[in-house]
Amino acid sequence: MILRCCLLLLVLFTPVLALSAEQSATGSDVKHKSASKLKVVTTIRPLHSLLSSIMQGNGKPVLLLDSRQSIHHYSLRPSQRRALADADLIFWLAESLESFMPRVLKAIPEQIHVVKLIDTKGLLLLEPRTISADADKKHRHGDEHRSHIDPHIWLSIDNALLIAAKMSETLSMLDPAFKHLYQNNLIRLSARLNALQKKISLSFDKRRFDYLVYHDAFQYFENAVNIKPLAAISKSEEQRPGIRHLSQIQKLLSDKQVSCLVYNTKPLPAIAANLIRDTAISPVYLDPTAQDFAAGTELYFQLMQAMHNAYAQCQKTDLTKH
User: Fold this and answer.
1) What is the 3-state secondary structure (H, E, C) of 200-217?
2) Residues 48, 35: Cα–Cα separation, whole Å
3) pLDDT tens profile 273-312
4) Secondary structure of residue 254 in the 3-state scheme
5) Facing residues of 234 across strands?
6) ω into residue 267 within 30 of 0, thus cis?
């Protein structure tokens, strides 16, 4: 009788025990998945630096473009394509910078969250300038024709603040368990960025000076400190300057006391070297994508300090000529 009862109880409770074990295993899997860190990818070094500050304490983002190959014409390796396909979240800027991204994004799984940062609300967006322009057109978010916008938006600290806020907001939405960490990191980063902006503004000599740029990639910084180059030698990275344009540059060099030439590709392009040969114009190297700095939280601050130092060097050179 006792044996029969035990057998009956075993038959009745075996499915329950099995279901309990299955739920326990499932619960363990869910807990493991929720505890895993988001896989976050961003394209260029300045964006990666801001994102690293926001994510500090909960993993590190993947930097997609890690070589000196031109961002505009980058050819992704298979490992980089896998990084995008394996991501939970991707931050990129715009077609006018990472021209390969729209095509690549069509091939990734639909569940991946993709943020195009040039669409962030409130950004200052500037159109590319020309040598004959008397005034530069400024836009706020909501304007059309994004393809006609200078994409180097991170060189404005005000824009960097908005980009960081967008990153924090997106991470908090997708990873709510770490919402407070992302928000607190944003507060700390914003305080550092505001202090940097104040330091640059206070230490920058407001006296006008004449200088050239090889490629007009720095106007967001220049706009913030209220300076402007006489001209850009190259109107675009894809197009060599024509004879007429070079003649205009040569006339400027003869009419003005040009202190320096800011260029962004190594070595100094031959066209630029020929223009300033046998002159007192100082070439000053400055890379807006910060390839010379180690990737990480400090890169953005090092880049903006380098921007300040380069233009300060131009001003110092100009002072010695007067």
Assistant:
1) HHHHCCCCCCCEEEEECC
2) 23
3) 999 999 999 999 999 999 999 999 999 999 999 999 999 9
4) helix
5) 215
6) yes
**CATH number of the domain bearing residue 241:** 3.40.50.1980
One domain, residues 97 and 157: yes
The burial of 262, by beta-carbon neighbours within 10 Å (0-12 exposed, 13-18 middle, 19 or more buried), is given as buried
Q: 231 CB contacts (<8 Å, ≥6 apart)? A: 131, 212, 213, 248, 249, 252
Work out how many domains the chain is built from and give that number. 2
Three-state SS for 9? helix
What phi and psi values does residue 125 have, to the nearest 5 degrees? -120, 125
Identity of the residue numbered 170: T
How much is the pTM? 0.83
Q: Which residues pair with 115 in a beta bridge?
A: 91
d(CA 51, CA 41): 9
pLDDT at 16 over 70: no
Residues 191 and 46 in one domain: yes
- At 90, which helix (H) or strand (E)? strand 89-92
Structure tokens at 131: 């040598």
